[in-house]
Amino acid sequence: MSAAILKRLRAMDAAELRFRAAAAVRSRVERARTALATPTWRREMLRLSVDPSVAPALASAREALERQDWMGAHLALAKHFRSRNAAFPLGATPLEQIAASIRARFPDGDAAPRADRVLSGTYDLLGYRAVQIASPPDWHLDAVHNHRAPLVFWESVPYLDPACGDHKITWELNRHQHFLTLGRAYALSGDVRYYREFVTQITSWIETNPPLLGTNWASMLELAFRSLSWLWALHFFAGAVTPDEQDPWIVDLLMALDRQLTHVEHNLSRYFSPNTHLSGEALALYVAGRSLPELQSSGSRTQVGRQVLLEEASRQVREDGMHAELSVHYHRYSTDFYLLALSVARLTGDAAEPELRAAAWRQSRALRLLADDNGRLPLIGDDDGGQLFPICGRPVTDCRDTLATAAVLLEEPSLALSDPPEETWWMCGGDVDAGATHAIERSLPSAPLPASGYYVSRNRLGDHLIFDCGPHGFLNGGHAHADALAVVLTIRGIPFLVDPGTASYTMDPERRDRFRSSAMHNTVVVDGRSQAETSGPFHWRTRTDAVCRKWSTTDTRDYVAGEHHGYSPVRHTREVMALHGTGWIIVDRLTGGDRIDAAAMWHVHPDWQLELIDDNTARFRHPSGLIVTLQTSVPLERITDPALNEYSPEYGRVVPALCLTSRTTGRTPLTLAAFVMASTVHPELGDMAEDV
């Protein structure tokens, strides 16, 4: 046994040792069984509750299961789910009423066209558009790169190996969130084609994904997301069942859902990825446990899921409400997790509702601060393109639906940026009158998230700047970037200085590392180095934490200053002054060391057109008529290296962008300064502009 393993064992407490030992023994037994015979699904293993006080209408379904009358059980279960009280945001009973309300409020919805694309085999998977996939799909195939993962025991699937394809793409399809697309279209149109496609696909998935074999059993979070999709599908389609059907899909769905949740419960990411993986898995256990009292194991799953969610609300959510991974994308994920848990707690009368409400409130308030006044989120940290509830195909950076849902569930109008969108009507089961139903003041005052190191300057003009002045990341920093003292800036509601995004996790290691490097962020690079060095797609060899030295805000200006030592012995200090209505001053000071090369990087959203005015001045024009001028104290030049002129608005999609640098070489101390100013064009005056 190696010294590293011994050291790791000594660091484990008794609970971790017990958990790992039990998981290891269970895995050995399961591996041996699958080696002897390919596992199969067994409908007779479906265990419904025998407590009549929990679900008295299940008696006929239980009797049918006992005599292996699968279609009889299927029809009895369909009748039960059509008639029972809702324990899930979307209950089968009020579905027609919810659909009627949505049709009245959103008459120009795109539900049918989006679902028709699924019928035609056309999918948008993360940033990959119009991916052609057969019906039923090959559930083990990365259809973008045409690589297939092997059907081997789940622990042996090398899903990070590019030879298996991009696991993110394969898993995205297998989350079955397009079932929400089909369910939405069926509820709003009554077109049975969408129901039939769902039945075809879920039947195919169960047939081709035997228990514990293949990539779709390898990540507990993916099983959790798939379980939630199946819960939505059950409530969307239970009312579509007819006596002449051939596939007892409700029996199969409950059987396979039960088995997958057991797998999740046995292999929770308590010690493997105790981040949003763990809280997402707990969410599925809790929601399924509370929403499906019909299953015998729901009680224990509820307890485990509830306990983990409440524990992680303290461990993963910082004092300022920001998620500990310091990725804006994953913060939105976590916010959605707790909003769904809160909704189910309210529907089912769970005593944990106050604690879940508190966790949802803290995260929602931080999300509202991080979003600009259009509800757009910057791409700070990793963003893998996934969403908890993508029922209407909203862009992943648009969080207005989350904030509107939070406003309703938390009864806090200040969180909303718009009237409740369609997603909120589905998520709240049509009950949106109890909370905020109208947008109020869109602009918040400037404020810090000091525990997370994000300092947000904003004003009523729609300007929104975030200064990254905090720790590198959470645990091993798997979703962090080397972006200490970086800024992102939206001007008049239009993104200007941007974070580059993520692009890829495992399929392109060079691009993965480059997009996380300091040179791809709006900060200073010294001697061509990155502030922190990577070690694989989700680890870091070194890390850099920044520290805020001062923050102040008034009605007319915001000021923040911070520093880091990632280029030791050189110290980098940055000061940012936002003069509301005038512009932004950014001053960088580099001290210590000797002779250095210092380059301030400026990554501009690709919608802007660049004009270099002189050695120290660049002008940017936006199609809206907005003009932004960047003036620097040292020579400014456009970067010609195409590798630095890339921007990934969504995982998997990369587009050309603009990158400039203001660069100087000399002995420390060195100072670099920049001034950003916005103007608007008067159409009748052509190029003449008015400062705003």
Structure description:
By secondary structure, this protein is an alpha+beta fold. The chain is built from 18 helices and 24 strands. Strands 11, 12, 13, 14, 16, 17, 18, 23 and 24 form a nine-stranded antiparallel beta sheet that branches. Helix 12 runs antiparallel to helix 13. The longest helix is centred in the first third of the chain and has 23 residues, at 14-36.
Low-confidence stretches: 682-692
| Total helical elements | 18
Q: Cα-atom Rg, whole angstroms?
A: 26 Å
Residue-averaged pLDDT, rounded? 92
As a percent range, the share of helical residues equals 25-40%
3D shape: globular
**Major sheet summary line:** 9 strands, antiparallel
User: What is the structural class?
Assistant: alpha+beta
Provide key terms for this protein.
18 helices; 24 strands; 692 residues; 20% strand; 5-stranded antiparallel β-sheet; 9-stranded antiparallel β-sheet; alpha+beta; single chain; disordered C terminus
Summarize the structure in short:
By secondary structure, the chain is α+β, with helices and mostly antiparallel strands. The chain has 18 helices and 24 strands.
